[in-house]
Amino acid sequence: MPHRRLAGLGLAAMAVIALFGAEALAEEAQPNSQPSYHRPVENWLTPPDGRVWGQVPTAQVDSKGNIWMLDRCGGTNCVGKSVDPILQFDPSGKLLRSFGGGMFVYPHGIYIDKDDNIWTTDGQGKDDKGQQVIKFSKEGKELMRLGTAGLKGETPTTFNRPSDVAVAPNGDIFVSDGHGGEDTNARIVKFSKDGKFIKAWGKKGTAPGEFDAPHSLAFDSQGRLFVADRGNNRIQIFDQDGKVLDQWKQFSRPVGLFIDKNDTLYVSDSDSDAPRNPGWQQGIRIGSAKDGTVKEFIPYPGPQAQSGNNAAEGVAADDSGNVYGAEVAHKMLRKYVKK
Fold first, then answer.
1. Distance of CA 271 to CAs 129, 304, 312, 313, Å?
2. Which residues contact 141 (CB under 8 A, 6 or more apart)?
């Protein structure tokens, strides 16, 4: 913890912080109090060829600063549709390429590895498609699949609504398996770089190491795995063997995660409302993956929803400081630039 946050604390409080880390200061954090240094840019991204955007669940930035996003084929899913759900744009909004048409049921998570390969999750199953992780080259060539197409389960070869995927520095693959609800999984699944099952951990619950909709994943520079445990209103941090290292609640109700090369942590909250996370506003919170401080809050640039999904679900950022919020409810990828 930064020393300024410890100033004036008594010995008892210091002891609590030593034992529980950033979580101990979560109750002290003032929701929605941080300043915003970004402003939204409206209509920066135009659908190609008159295409209408569908739900946009997530986005990522590659090594060249180009933006990749998922679009649910003009609607709420891609069943029976041939349009490409995976699209790449330059920072000005120009379409560079797209692919994946006819391959997906419910595109949900996207991750770009150090070689600019594109990893995606298909979070539902229908007609022998979906319930899988699919890896593509940046040109759109299919390279790997994990899971069994169209089949849900909780085995080494099946998923049940996989939400996100991330790749560790050594190439091991991690999948958050379970989008939420009683009929889905609630676990993290680890594979070797060549797709062999290594282990899984977690179950539905509220204790450390348990989950209620593990919705997004990100690695920091230390190789720690951050999990957006959405239903429990917390980020859980693990080592790569599944040991719980910490849990943070000061980033509100985390739905999307992104950590840049400087360990800046971006957390999107599309879900906070009075019954689920009272007192917190929807928006994007920016802070430190090193010590858990929250430094900026970008509120949703419109009326705060009283219930339900409204603001950005997925989040990403580029090296120029631009922030991208993927919005399911409003079917758009919103761009925020520094003021």
1. 28, 10, 9, 8
2. none
For the chain, what percentages of helix, strand and coil (3-state, to nearest 5) are there? Answer: 5, 40, 55
C-alpha distances (whole Å) from 109 to each of 118, 176, 282, 336 are 10, 10, 20, 21
Distance of CA 297 to CAs 119, 195, 216, 247, Å?
Answer: 29, 38, 19, 20
DSSP 8-state symbol, 291: T
CATH superfamily of 31-338: TolB, C-terminal domain (2.120.10.30)
Strand residues in 71-224 grouped as ranges (E):
86-89, 95-99, 107-112, 118-126, 129-136, 142-146, 162-167, 173-177, 187-191, 197-201, 214-219
Q: Under DSSP, is residue 144 helix (H, G, I), strand (E, B) or coil? A: strand
pLDDT in tens, 150-183: 999 999 999 999 999 999 999 999 999 999 888 9
Q: Is the pLDDT of residue 25 over 70?
A: no
For residues 297 and 281, give the distance between their C-alpha atoms in angstroms, rounded to a whole number: 9
Query: Residue ranges per domain, the chain?
Result: 1-29, 31-338
Contact 29, 250 (CB under 8 A): yes
Residues 188-240 pLDDT 10s: 999 999 999 999 999 999 999 999 999 999 999 999 999 999 999 999 999 99
